[in-house]
Amino acid sequence: MIVRPLRLCNAKSEAQQKLMAIFMPPSPANIGYIRRWLSSEGPPDTVKQDWEFFQFQKRLLDPIGSQVAPHYRPHELLSRPPRAQDVSLELLMASQAHLGHATGLWHPANAKYIYGVRGETDPIHIIALDTTAAHLRRAAKVVKGVCEQAGLVLFVGSRPGQARAVVNAAELAGGCHLFTKWTPGTITNRQHLLHRCQKKAVDNEDQEVACSEDELRDHGALKPDLVVCLNPLENYVLLHECALNNIPTVGIIDTDCNPAWVTYPIPANDDSLRSVYVIAAVLGQAGKEGRDERIRRERMGADGWSQNYV
């Protein structure tokens, strides 16, 4: 490699001489100058010269380089969740949503979601991210519509590390969350399993209203209007109960899962926490938009009904 010297032949200051000695090709004179500069035997009054050298080097090197923007910031998925229209292929690629399972574990029903195969010794399937983005936007539209009509959305994620994403999405959408094991019969046998749960009445603006215990006792246990499942493989019983009660479901479908288990599948990597956090944040933000729209219309008097939800 040929290093071209900088054009500092007419340099007279001490700082320019130091920089010229560094970038010039090595010679006995330059090497001796650098040794004297780095040695501790130099004069003690070199602070001014060093400061001039630093300022000159800063002015010279500041224009060099590049600015990497925008780049992936996974910590902002909780503080600044993206909207459905902000979902891009770059965001999904950075969150590892395209990585599937080994080709020997694939489900044939996922053939339309698979882009190709990567690897020779241990090949894995690659998920088509354009399909993932389209299905994610569709699911976000469904969540927004349910929250806009004062529906109850249940977010479920029982794998290690998914609790924070589930709780954050439920808080945004004003729904419920579950990050532990699903109790079989919670939906199909909810009158016996949930009869001791505490109930409260809220108005159309999600504000709690006073209600007697007799009125609350007359209302049976609620069932969710929509269930968002982040790991369908471990929650097949939940999805089966939702199908028996005609409850629509949204789920992350990896290449080894049957997409027929859920109503609105989202083909993506369910093993990556970044991928799960992106999808949960987008769905939670969509629920928040629908909830805010409902509250805004209620305050403006656009809705002609005033029913309390228990």
From TrEMBL:
Pfam families (UniProt xref)? Ribosomal_S2 (PF00318)
Q: Which GO terms describe its cellular component?
A: mitochondrial small ribosomal subunit
Please list the GO biological process terms of this entry: translation
Per UniProt, the keywords (alphabetical) are: Ribonucleoprotein, Ribosomal protein
Q: Which SUPFAM superfamilies match?
A: Ribosomal protein S2
Kindly list the GO molecular function terms attached to this UniProt entry: structural constituent of ribosome
The protein's name in its UniProt record? Ribosomal protein S2
